[in-house]
Amino acid sequence: MTLLSRLQALASPAIGLGCMNLSHGYGQPVPEAEALKALDAAFDMGYRHFDTATLYGATANERLVGKALSGKRDEILLASKCGMAFDPELGRKVIDGRPETLRQQCEASLERLKTDHIDLYYLHRWDRSVPIEESVGALARLVAEGKIGAIGLSEVSAATLRRARSEHPIAAVQSEYSLWTRNPEIAVIEACREADTAFVAFSPLGRGFLAGAIQADTPLAEGDVRRGMPRFSAENLPRNLSQLAELQAVAREHEVTSGQLALAWLRAKGDDILPIPGTRSVAHMRENLAADGLRLAPVTVARLDTLLTPDRVAGERYGEALQAEIDTEAFP
C-alpha cells in the first residue's frame, strides 16, 4: 500500500477538519468548553481527519485537540505541524527548521496531543536557512522512532518537494487550494502525483469567502488574519464579491450552498485532493461534510473552472510579509 493510499484510508471521509479556527487566526479563541463540544460533534458526525499545529493559539490548539480526541485516538487521522511556533520571549512567531528544534517541537506536541505518535507531521514552513533535506532527514528519524507515521510539507514548491523526497518519502503536501486560489495547479499537484503524495487543501472555502460569509460591510474582529489579506481589502473585496455572485447562482441551480459547491469542485479534481475546511460552527461543519457525497458532472466542473480564475481575482492571497515566508509557485 502506498503512502497516499494509506493516508486516504485513514482520512475517510475525504473531507477533514482544519482545527485552527477554534484557537487562532480569527479573533478571540472559542471558549474551551464550547470548542470541546464542537470537536466532539465533528467526530460524531463523521470527521476522521483532524489537522492542528504547534503554532495555532501558541500551542493551545494542540492541547484542545488532544483533550477532545484522546479517547478516540485509534479512530482518527491526527495531523500536526512543526517548524513554525510562537516565541513568547520575542512576542512573535519564528520559523526554525533545525533538526534539534523539530525534535523538541514534536516531543512537546506528543505531550499536548496526549498520544505516543502523530500520524502525519508537517514541516509547517521551509526554513530557508536550513537545507530542506536536513529538515526532512530529522523528520525521517522521528518516523524511524515511531513518533510520527508519515512526513508532510506545507506551502512548498514542486522543486522543493522533489528535493525533499530524495531524502525520504513525503506523504502529503498541504497548501491553500480553492476556486479562487489555483496556484497548486501550476506545478505542485503534478509533482505530488509523480510520487503518490496526497495534496491536502487548506482554506478550500477561501477563508469563508466562497461560503458567502464575507460581505462588503462584514466587520472583521481585531486579530482576524483576513484584515491583512489583500483580497479582503476595501479596494478589492467589492470586485471579488461581484464574481462570487456567479458561483452562488450555479449553487442555486444545483440546490446546494456555494460552500458545498466549492468543496465538490475540489473533490472532482482527484481522489488525491483532501480538503480540510475549518470553521467554528457545528452547523457549518455538518454542511461542509455533506459535500463529500456530492458528485459534479464534468460539464459543471468545466463551468466552475471558468469562475474566479487568477486573472479575475483581485488581490494576492497574502500580504508582503506572509508571502515572503512561503515557497509556493505564483501566477505572473
Automatic annotation (TrEMBL):
Domain NADP-dependent oxidoreductase: from-to ranges: 14-307
Record bears the keyword Ribosomal protein: no
GO molecular function, one term: oxidoreductase activity
SUPFAM superfamilies cross-referenced by the UniProt entry: NAD(P)-linked oxidoreductase
Pfam families registered for this protein in UniProt: Aldo_ket_red
Gene3D superfamilies, per database record: NADP-dependent oxidoreductase domain
GO cellular component, one term: cytoplasm
UniProt entry keywords in alphabetical sequence: Oxidoreductase
Protein name: Aryl-alcohol dehydrogenase-like predicted oxidoreductase
Organism listed in the record: Halomonas campaniensis
